Sequence to fold (299 residues):
Amino acid sequence: MSHNHDHSHNHDVKDFGKAFAIGVTLNLIYIVVEVTYGILIDSLALIADAGHNLSDVLGLLLAWAASHLVKKRATKKYTYGFKKSSVLAALINSLILLVAMGAIIWEAVGRFSKPQIIEGETMMIVAGIGVVINAATAFLFFSGRKDDLNIKGAFLHMAADAGISLGVVIVGLILTFSNIYWLDPVVSIVIAISIIWGTWGLFKDSINLALDAVPENIDKEGVEEYLNSLNEINSFHDLHIWAMSTTETALTVHVIINEGVDQNNLIENISETMFHKFNICHTTIQVENIGKENCNNCT
Fold:
């Protein structure tokens, strides 16, 4: 029995450090503006939204830290490095977003019994600034939202804020010409529910990756069909596929090969196929010769 490992592929992770720096800076400035005008016009809506924006800044900082940690080298204790931190950051970010939306719904329900008199024009202007800043920040993470769950979390945070700010702009516009103050909580609830709907997928994916489930973008059945198609392999078992981070996937498998097979050539071919066809960049293969005692009781 021989153990062979192939980790020859370097998985390049796009650097979003500049995007995080710009996003955090813009949103911190906007929070100061929002709190200032919220106090000046006695608008709880603006102050509450500022608190929500602060939670998003914390989310961005968390995602930024995780994107930095995944690049750190492995240590004696953390032999995989800190790649899994990106999964944890995505999970925490989704939880923060869900809790924040729940808080908004709670606040909105309470306002039905005590409608707040709001200066619509000022609200519209301040919220309009928020739409621009949040949409611009979300755009910074747009290109990485499909490849990295952690970046997707940052994108959803900022896109959610842009949606909330747009809703506030619409409410402010209406309140400028009317006194339909109950519209504020109604729009808030609608926006919050739509954001919860979109965030649930991120939360579910984060849980799955944290539990080492096969990533959604990996075709496990395709991997099995490929291994079964190889004439050099008699059979295989203990196939495991899991996410090392939000961008990197690992695979381990025991293969029982036929006599006379060039092990090194077989391993190289399998590893290349896993990388180029299935986007699995860390492949570990344990080779076992046919007819010999194998580890069939492994899980």
